Predict the 3D structure of the following.
Amino acid sequence: MGLKGFILRKVVAACLTIVAIVCVNFVIFRMAPGDPVRMMFRDPRVSAENLQEMRQTFGLDKPLSGQFVAYVKGLAHGNLGLSFSHRRPVLEVIAQKIPATLILVVTALMIAIFLGVALGALSGWKSGTKLDTFVLTASLTMYSIPTFALGIILLLVFAYHIAIFPLGGMATPASLLEGPELIWDVLWHMFLPALSIVIWYVGEYVLLTRSSMIDVMGQEYITTAYSKGLKKFRILKNHALRNALLPVVTITGVNLGFAVAGVIEAETVFSWPGVGRLVYDAVSHRDYPLLQGVFLLFAFSVVLANLVIDLIYGYIDPRIKVST
Amino acid sequence: MMKKMNKGTWMAICLMGAFLILFTFSPNALAKKSRLSVGFTTEEALENLQTGEAWQYTEMGAVFWPLVYDQLWIMGPAPDYEPLPMIVERWETDDYLTWRFYLVKNAKFHDGKPVTAEDVAFTLWYLPKSNPAWDYPDNDIEDKSSIKVIDEHTIEFTLAAKWPGKYPPASWMPVLPKHIWMPHKRKLVNFENKKCIGSGPFKLKKFKGGEYVWMVKNKKYWGEVPAVDEVVFKSYGSQDAINMALKKGQIEFIGYNGSSPLSVEDFKKTENVDVAISPGIALVWLGFNLHKENAIQDKLVRQAIMHGIDRERLIQMVYLGYAKPADSFIYPELPIYNPNLPKYAYNPDKARQMLEQAGYLDKDGDGIRNDKKGGQNMSFEFLVPSAWPDEVKLAKVVKEQVKDIGIEIKLKVVDLDTYYEFIYTPKEDKFDISISSEEPGPNGSWIWEFARGYNNGGAGWNQAYYDNPEFDKTLDAMNAETNLEKQKELTFKLQEIMAADLPYAMLVRPDLIGPYRTDKFEGFVETMGGLSTWINVWSYFKARPIK
């Protein structure tokens, strides 16, 4: 199968996954106990007419099959429906929150990948030394601290005791900052939440890169490279690290998607106004359209990231194209 | 020489002018504005400016709109909680059915348009009919013709039922500008209301959903202009973050619900921080589902459960001593509180004896009594919302305590929305006992609707499925009684019936732990519930910078 066939197969698989997710997405939230329309009313004296009006507004007066058809039709037109709790189009609600999450996740993940791969490669390269022991212990520790606890500790140390960072939010509340000042302010606010994500992910990348590096270092082509008299750094860069990176690339694809969904805790602790908080509220309000929209976004980002990884995998490792 | 001197003088003047301009517009100069910052958790924060339930049931919303919108009248501060005119000069009624309010003549909305009786009429008719509704017994008007605009500043309306008592009707209701809301009258709740034009003492400057609300004082306010220049409601990710913000001076006090009893000693040691321990506004009680066919339907079982609960121990274990035992929907400091109610003192021996005598015995020797009707274990599902950590703890302690009298409790911890859906549909039998909490406030006659029988128009709030015609009759009589002394007697009787029947078993009234900064502002007003609640926005009106 040629490159075109390989790409086509991967794209079709991704599309099928999305279709499956759309169906599961629709069913799964409706299995939760409780009537979402009743939940829109904190005042229990709501009249039957008002309940019915609300059901009609949100299309919940139709049978499940009718709701599903309307949902799929809406999706085909790029319409994710109307949020129960926000009373606004889901797309608009998500679009308002997604930039904050993306800024946080992409920045944190990039730093984590860079640091994790560098430290992991170094640790694997210097396997068995004191440096390796130190990096390994530190990474295991970082990887095992719950994000929530880590967030609180960071707040306590850096925002309260040393007081060099803010206690939360994305920018200084009630300020009229603009331009570079605003960018600086956002970066200042982002430092701690990003650090909490970096600390968690860097441990993962170090452990993965290190173990992959140790595997590669035992391969015959590394011995050959040594026997050819190549310089150590060149062997590390061109022979060892490139091969050791394959599993790292795979996990990065998965992480990119999961990170968007996984920042809920960091966003909660640091009151970062992103999608994570939105999910929490949507779950508690049984906001089906919003949940469907957000989870579709999460699923789409995981599938897309994996598709991209699959495609570039073929470039990084020619054996994959051959085997397909 | 003269020429040179002139040049120098001019240069000096220019330099001084430049400094003056720089100083005037520098951040330091801007910082001189007095800003009262108040902290909320992100869960309590407003996500949008739409009216409706967000204003009524989110903590930030309930304090926000009374700053930006005027009300006809407002609850006065403690200890008397008198009804005080807000945007009206006075009100009058002859029969407690038809009410006439006289508006102040110089009130204007933030956009400069005058506040008139037309605005009040619009609000009175359309706000209670929005969906979800802003609907209370004291703004129940059956038809539009019952609202009459007498002149530009006089409005008269006739209620569906008499509203006698200390407080006039149409309480806690924003006066909306008709010229802005009219196009949205059928769907008031959907109106985005981005500018939030009201006529209140503060104006909205900037709003970021879930993050902050920035208000500035309305310098052209028709009444007493606030002393603080700005009020900012900030949201924080956790209670810990709020506590840290307070200690660091980033906020002056906590916007709602105060802090945990665990933090009291810590705050007392903090420089420039004082702690107001106020009587709570929230009451916590057990709600018994009397619809479900089991032993809970037996009044004696409910009474035995109450004797099996050690409320003093509950208060020590859950609230670290910062709570008082409760026995009525009415707060003890109010004149309508009946001091002679049964107290259900902790007495497990008596509880066991009551159950034995009534035939609830442990027949199979498993430590749990058996229902005398079906023989099944007296095991009850106890519904608690996960969002109320203190009440979850309380439920766990109650579970252990009633185990001693041979009753098993199974905790059913659910999210808050599911909890509300379950408790307000007792006929669906999704719980046996629930923990409940409300904030009736001093003007809390609406709370009695929680016990009005389903056969007497009492659906909705009656989460116990309680049905007692004598209670309903007394409630109707109390609502119609215009003589305050007689009305008080009837309120006493309602309390007696409820304390005897126990559809709801009152447990505790948690104190409000309200830490506040003392270094920048003074004049905060403390009422039941602390410095800032839906009945108390006086702290914002009365706070002033310390000179």
